[in-house]
Specification:
Blueprint (H helix, E strand, L loop, with lengths): L2 H11 L3 E6 L12 H13 L2 E6 L2 E2 L9 H17 L5 E4 L2 E3 L4 H6 L12 E5 L9 H9 L3 E5 L5 H5 L13 E5 H4 L5 H10 L6 E4 L12 H12 L1 H17 L10
Parallel strand pairs: 1-2, 2-4, 3-5, 5-6, 6-7, 7-8, 8-9
Helix pairs in contact: 1-9, 9-10
This protein binds fe (ii) ion (FE2).
Amino acid sequence: MTPQDSNTTKGAVEASFIDVHCHCLPGLDDGPPDVPAALTLCRALAADRIATVVATPHQLGRYDGRYDARMIRRAVAQLNELLAEARIPLSVLPGADIRIDERIEDMVRSDEIVTVADGKRYLLLELPHEVFIDPEMLLARLVEGGLCGVITHPERHAFLAERPEFVRRWVPYRPCLQITAGSFLGGFGRRSEEAAWAFLREPLPLAVATDAHDTAGRAPCMSEAYRLLHRYVGRDEADILCMENPRRLVAGEALVSLNVE
Ligand SMILES: [Fe+2]
């Protein structure tokens, strides 16, 4: 490493991130089981230089009917109070990790599921893991209703990881691809790692998020992923992936595309 590299790397760790996908609410889904565990995870997020996190408990799929949008918003407000009391420098916004389902558009309209930061523009969409269901029609219908899908961790889906170019057919609907920070580090295996890098070359906007659940096997590692991206695709692209597009997802603004060769 050259002295210049070491300077830019030092600058990189001073960045602060927005995490748009994290299971940090206590006792709702497969995230922390209770308040102490949630605070431990939130401390780890803050230590990972994340300033704002979107709490995204699972909705629909195997969590269908367990809690609604109102309960998620209340849990977010409570967690923010606990964070202030514990002096943990982290701000939590409401969201959800929504299993794809034909009821989604109706449920957004009836306020039963939560969009990213409650902005009514972006929705995290989780594909079933076992089979591949092409979300193209859902993405098209969402766009008609003024909404935009964020496909969570395509690099961890067996079908898409093997054929990243498949996502090109979604270009007319401009969904965001959300790649997991840990995938760049090999935390989800070789295939997901290779696919994470391959998706950077696809013509869709991307954002990196932790999808953290705990401080053990699914701990946040945004800073480390940012350092790696900074090194291999450059500072501008790393900033878009880990800061600018996450900020735009939260603000409900149009996303920036990458330029990776
Ligand atoms: Fe998730």
